[in-house]
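Two records follow; treat each independently.
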Amino acid sequence: MLSLITGAVITGCSDSGKLPEAQAPASVKPKQQLITQVTATVTEDKSQAFFSYNPAGKRDPFAPLIVKEDHKALTGERPPLERYNIYEFKLSGIVWGGFGYSAMVEGPDGKGYFVHVGTFIGQNKGIVKKITQYTMVIEEKFKTISGETDRKEVVLELRNKQEGMQ
């Protein structure tokens, strides 16, 4: 490393104190012009690299991917238990736990739903009133021809094992 530095110093001082024409003070002005030309081309390239983003037709990256059923209900769409008639549901099973009985119903879409006492079900906003070991009682309110409000109880029963095998 020391030899390289010594070689550079000797080569630079080989002429007898004269500055070459490229290093003369008069040649400083063309170097400055060269530097400004290079700077000008770099700034021109930056102006051409301007990028514009158009979000039209693209998904919002901050919107949640999974939308809860409650959100859909607010937008006017009904929850799955309220989309179908009560008679289209099948009582698949009843489970007893620390909070009492819960029932599992199968909808016409083939999906299963757990319901408890107080759950709304059916197109007419029927409400689950009672769940026993083998049945589920749903109360539906409806208006008669005369305009009076009447109540109807629908009882869904568990299927027997023999019924399901046929």
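The next record belongs to a different protein.
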Amino acid sequence: MSPGVTEPPAAALPPARVRATTVRVRDHFVLARFGRTAREQYRAAASKGLLDTLTSTGDRWVDFAQFIEATELVCKLFAEGDITMARDIGRFAAETNMGVWRSLVYRVLSPSTVLSIAGGLWSHHYDGGRLAVSPEGKHGVRVRIADFPTPHRTHCLSIEGWAQRTVELGRPRRVSVVETGCRLRGAPACEMVVEWE
């Protein structure tokens, strides 16, 4: 590059989108955990756009901001604003998504293989970033959310809960999840280590 000429800025990543069904898991969580009246309260507090997503059928891409609103609203209404409830939502999503395949999957596959396969399905739920899963010791994996356009704490907490419950469904004796990096605190990626016995 010639002297005095500055390098052009890197292209900004486009805003992330998420599947409507992924957002609707929050609505299903409220119904399952707190009941029909609570779900009515939840829907009444939602923005018009989020309410449309929660009450519509079929699947489509929606703005990631709806995922954040849906998750934060659950935490506000049912956990006094404590966003760590996002982990419970992630755990619920893991069970919901596994469905009838659970017993077959866990009879054949190790927890690390299940998480790797699930990581490969990332682009079914989000159209930005990727979920990378790599071995970590004898009974663990490192889960890394890479290149996601708009990191958010409720998203990371949801993924933590999802990862933990995904492994727990295989019935190990103990499962732990430890966050090892967060982009919101300056790390190059959001990542966690999942270990089991």
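Discussion point: Confidence is low (pLDDT under 50) at residues 1-11. How would you locate this feature using only the token line?
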